[in-house]
Amino acid sequence: MKIVLINSIGKNKWGGGEKWMVMAATGLMSMGHNVVVVCRKNSVLSKRANAENLTVEEIAANSDFDLIACWQFCRFFKEFQPEAVIGCQNKDWRVASVALKTIGSAAKVYSRQGLQLLKNHWWYKWTVRLFCDGIITNTHTIKKEYESFLPVEKDFIKVVFNGVEKVPQNVSTFDYREYIPSEENDPIIVLSTGRLAKQKGFKYLISVAADIIQQHPNVYFFLAGRGKLEDKLKTQVEKLGIEKNFIFLGFVEDIHPLLKAADVFVFPSLYEGMPNSLLEAMAHGLLVISSNVNGVQELIEDGVNGYTVEPGNVDSLYNVLNHVVSNRSDISILGEKARHFIFDNFAVEKMVKNLNGVLCVNKTVDS
């Protein structure tokens, strides 16, 4: 089967949606499909896809009405003749659908909704009905919300959970000691990762960190990532006087060494789909504390394999984090339960199999 995955995300962006795209493309290829990744020219996604030996076509839609991108898609689709197209941004599947209709293609067009990007508005309802053959999301929460306002059939929206790769064998261990005073004998490492953007809620984590550090000076916070709010967040840390215990690591290519050496993973995001960074932390057996947003409630059973808090609620986050660092036995017990839960339910192979099932209804995989 010929499948196209499209993501017009910015050149320098790399996150859960882009990781999903590369994993999905690689997995579908391993099942015998002919897969092409379509993305922005010279983007991080393009480089990562090429590094995985995926076939890459560099086209990017800049809006729902991008005529140049539509023309480029027409040329590409005429040559490749896809049977299924998945657009990861709303503009991707809309422009791709117009191009397919223009050349008379019967290819199915799917909207991949890793975040809740559709709204209860006539434009979204109309374009879904006209340009989309199905929605693929990664949480039952988003599916339920969309079904409450989109005029679609019951089986139009499919849930395919994100997958997480197995922890690499012999992964190196990040040396957090480089940032910790030599006289500190028993540090607790709290790690967070992600784009330094408003959505991720790091300002709330920093606020809580100041109170935790005051009570537990052996707790050290590490934040890996870059983004527009970097200077603002660093200023917040400096004003609170916690620079020695709250360290910015910048962009880290491989987070596995960070995860391997950490004790606790905090995910304070204000909204998400099924967060890959949380999946990866749980796969490493870390105790996780996360905002209870969308797909998180399908990952964490509060107090059993991690903890959840209300997004933006600093009191709730402080109480849970204070409990964890005061009762270190929780760290290993709940972390191990998290690890088992992830590999029982979120293996990459399972994700690809389920995605294949959505795409290949009444289709035969090419040999």
Question: How would you characterize this protein structure?
Answer:
There is one protein chain. The protein is α/β, with parallel strands linked by helices and 367 residues long. It folds into 2 domains: 175 residues, 3-Layer(aba) Sandwich (Rossmann fold); 170 residues, Rossmann fold (3-Layer(aba) Sandwich). 41% of the residues lie in helices and 17% in strands. A 7-stranded parallel β-sheet has the order 3-2-1-4-5-6-7, with helices on both faces. Strands 10-9-8-11-12-13 form a 6-stranded parallel β-sheet, sandwiched between helices. β6, α6 and β7 form a beta-alpha-beta unit. α1 crosses α13. It is elongated. The termini are close together. The mean pLDDT is 92.
Spatial ordering of strands, largest sheet: 3-2-1-4-5-6-7
End-to-end gap: 9 Å
Annotation field: number of helices: 13
Going by CATH, the homologous superfamily of the largest domain would be Glycogen Phosphorylase B
Structural class: alpha/beta
Return the string of H and E elements: EHEHEHEHEHEHEEHEHEHEHEEHHH
Uncertain residue segments:
none
What is the CATH top level name of the largest domain? Alpha Beta
CATH topology type of the largest domain: Rossmann fold
Q: How many DSSP E strands? A: 13
Number of domains: 2
Q: Percent of residues in helical segments? A: 40-55%
How much strand content do the residues show? 15-25%
Largest sheet: 7 strands, parallel
Rounded to the nearest angstrom, the radius of gyration is 22 Å
Mean pLDDT, to the nearest integer, reads 92
